[in-house]
Amino acid sequence: MSDLGDWFRSIPLITRYWFAGSIAVPLVGKLGLVSPVSLFLWPDAFIHRFQIWRPITATFFFPVGPGTGFLYLVNLYFLYQYSSRLETGAFDGRPADYMFMLLFNWICIVITGLAMDMQLLMIPLIMSVLYVWAQLNRDMIVSFWFGTRFKACYLPWVILGFNYIIGGSVINELIGNLVGHLYFFLMFKYPMDLGGRNFLSTPQFLYRWLPNRRGGVSGFGVPPASMRRAVEDQQGGGRHNWGQGFRLGDQ
Questions:
Q1: Is residue 6 assigned to a domain?
Q2: Is the dihedral of CA 233, 236, 237, 239 positive or negative?
Q3: Which stretches of sequence are listed as region Disordered (predicted)?
C-alpha cells in the first residue's frame, strides 16, 4: 500500500485530483451511494431545475459495467498519461495556465453537451487534453498497439478510431478533438505562428490561487516577431519546439 500511496502522491497536483475524482465518482455511482441518474448532464434538470452540480459530476462520472469497463480503464489511462505529461512538460511550473486550459476546454464541452444533449463529459475532456499534447509534440514518433508507429499529431485520430471499435461511437472523441484544437489554435497557433492577437489569457485569480513555481512573467505570452523568426530559422519549416516529447508507454 505504501508503494501505491507513493505513486499516487507522485502524480502532478491537478492531474492527481482529476484522476482521483474520475475514480471516486464512478465508484460512488457503482456502489449505489448516489443514484447515477443524478450524475448525468441533463439540460432540463440543469437549466430548469437548477441542478448546477450536473456539469461537474458528468465530467467525472462514467457508468462502469461489463460492456463499458474496458473503455473506462483505457480512457483513465489516457487521462493519467497525457495530463501528467502536459502538466510536467509544456505547463511545468505553470499550474494556473494548465488549470485555465482545463477550465476553457471544460466550459466549451459543457456548452456543446447542453446543445447536443451529451450526458457524459469525461471522454471529451480527456481527448481535448490528449489533442493539445499531440499538437505540442506533433513530430514525435509514438508507438501504439501491436507496434504501430506514427507521428504524435495523428494520435487523437487513431484513438478516435480505437474507441469507436471498442465503444461504438466517435461523438465524444470528435468533440474533444475539436475543443482541443480550438484551445491550441487560440493559445499557440494564432498568436505565436500567425502573429495574431492573443484571445486567451489566464485570469489573475488563478495565478493567486496557483502561483507559478518558477520566476518570470505569468502566462505564455506572445514572443516578439524577431524571436519568432529566430526560432523558425533555427528549427526550419516555421515549427516551434513547444515541449518535451514522450513515447507511449514511457513512465
A1: no
A2: negative
A3: 231-251
Query: So what's the pLDDT on residue 241?
Result: 38
Give the per-residue pLDDT at 1.
Answer: 59
**Domain containing 23: what range?**
12-208
Lowest mean pLDDT among 28-37, 177-186, 215-224: 215-224
Pair 179, 124: CB distance under 8 Å: yes
Q: What is the dihedral of CA 132, 138, 140, 145, to 10 degrees?
A: 70
Query: Nearest CA to 96 among 2, 220, 6, 248?
Result: 220
Domain at 72, CATH number: 1.20.1540
Q: For cell 510536467, what's the residue?
A: 88
Contact between residue 213 and residue 146 where contact means Cβ atoms under 8 Å apart: no
What is the per-residue pLDDT for 222? 38
What is the pTM for the complete model shown?
0.82
* Distance separating alpha carbons of residues 207 and 100, to the nearest angstrom: 10
106-133 mean pLDDT: 95
